[in-house]
Specification:
Helices cover 8% and strands 31% of the residues. With 157 residues, it is mainly beta. The protein has a domain of 108 residues. A hairpin with a 6-residue loop joins strand 8 and strand 9.
Length: 157
């Protein structure tokens, strides 16, 4: 017999009960649509002077807090993925005018960019035509099933 123990921390996000969530818990909750803390991607679709199709994505780091970010030049034909430097915390988005992908660091202070999936340069500011990276919310069928029958605890009434 397989026994699985599950513990849920936090409060329901859409509740009509009127409970207030404990801020010590909610401040640590990572929402699946938060691009700064969860899976997201953007694509460099520069048409000229050189046609590009570079996919950039970030996903949860399984070993440490934060994300790991990668890129791949899909026109190169080799299906190679390259890890971006560790100081890249998340993808801001793509600027078609500049033909560059933009990133931020963990403290949200440094702005960086890349035009080729190989070099990451510091940038002074974000351009005004940023096409923001897209979130890829995590979906767990097991969590969906369990959420119907499990009472979320650690709430303040």
């Amino acid at each position: 017999m397989l026994l699985i123990r599950l513990e849920f921390f936090g409060c329901m996000m859409a509740s009509t009960v009127g409970l207030k969530c404990d801020p010590r818990i909610t401040s640590q909750t990572v929402m699946a649509d938060d691009r700064k803390k969860y899976r997201h991607f953007a694509v460099d679709t520069t048409p000229s002077p050189v046609k590009k199709r570079i996919v950039y994505f970030c996903d949860k780091n399984p070993y440490r807090e934060g994300l790991r970010c990668y890129c791949s030049d899909r026109l190169s034909g080799d299906n190679k993925w390259t890890e971006l430097p560790g100081f890249v915390a998340y993808i801001v988005g793509f600027s078609e005018k500049r033909g560059r992908m933009y990133f931020k660091d963990r403290k949200d202070r440094a702005i960086m960019s890349s035009y080729n999936c190989l070099n990451v340069d510091l940038a002074e500011a974000l351009p005004d035509d940023i096409l923001e990276a897209e979130s890829v919310p995590g979906i767990s069928s097991m969590l969906t099933i369990l959420s119907v029958s499990v009472l979320i605890c650690n709430c303040i009434s």
